Amino acid sequence: MLSLLFPQSQSVLALILLTQISLSLPPFVPSFSSLRAVSESRSHVTSPHGDPDIPETMWFEHAIRWQMRHHDETLITESVKVLKEGPDFYIPVSNTTGLVRSPHEYPQYYLAEPWVFSFLTIYMFFLILIGIPVNLFTLCVTVLHKNLRTPVYYMLVNMTMADLIVIVVSFPFTMHAAMHGYFVHGQVGCNFEGFFTVHGTQISLWSLVVLAVERFMVSCKPDIDIRFRRKFIVKGISFTWLMAFSCSLPPLFEWSRYIPEGLQCSCGVDYYTLKPDLFNESFINYMFTVHLVIPLTVISLCFGRLLCVVNNDTFNKNERDANCLTVLLTLGFFMCWLPYASFGWHIFSNQGSAFSPFAMTLTSFFAKSSVLYNPLICIYMDKQLRQCMVITLCQGKNPFADKVGASASSSVSSGSAAPA
After folding, report:
1. List the disulfide bonds (predicted).
2. Which of 11, 19, 288, 419 is the most buried (most CB within 10 A)?
3. Does some domain include residue 351?
4. What are 233-256's pLDDT values in tens digits?
5. Assigned domain for 226 exists
């Protein structure tokens, strides 16, 4: 029976396990490096059923299952934990059943029913279908109409471009992975998708920081020179991209890593392991401090001032509208991303604790919806932007305005005021 279960070189491993069980010693289960050394010593791996080319973990699992049938299962809990983690993935579930497989090679239907992955596919398709035209149209209208070329809109254009990058480059990878039930693009695709998601998100975050500081300066000194404000915003845009790169690039250069997360059909920074060889702990602390706590603190301090002057009569309506727009954009962004960031920090600060992959996916995919909120909030809050959109669609005319409104809308293209 032993020769049937463990043919060829595997019988050595089986003999070790059987000997230790008979002596009531703690079971010895070799590490992946030991298993790999054994597998490399043979040119061909054969399963217990005679099937060739079985992955090296397969025959190891047969040994584990045989041991579980003949010995106390609690003694091998630590042994099977190693199977849920690989060099480029970590799946937060118990692997005592031997079901866990690499998310780059096998469908992950043991984490959720297939219909859940189908729903995620439809959800991502919806974000792509709505997000691209809405963001692209907002970007085109803002660029075409000169009266919208104000400091606030400079930064809104920057945020819209970041959202478009995420939608066009990153979301198709996620949708395709959800369609297949696992991340079919491999580690290279995971790095690609994770990089652009983090990069676009950080551009939006730091754009809100720069916008909050600009609004703070205007609230302190309402008569500040518009040329100074424009220069400040232009430099601020460069700053947002620099800070985004400082967060998205390190995992590509082995300071932390990008791995599949949740249901394993999207990628993000590794919150799950300390990974000393990649200095993962220091990167997560750096990311949460520099790229979350500091921006949130700066925005909160600036908004404290804005809320004090939002109804101040010394500010014209356009300035007050710009302040309200900035506040709503920031609230929308953090409403989407704080649940995901909080869950990630909980996982990191409670290493080894159980959590639901579905819950992680829920917060992650909800955060992705932020790409729709920026343009929708701008359209809802800014009447001037709505007028410009109607004029663009109707080739220079606003058919929904009355005579007074029509004369006002006709002046839009010649330079009427927009939010400062």
Report:
1. 190-267
2. 419
3. yes
4. 999 999 999 999 999 999 999 899
5. yes
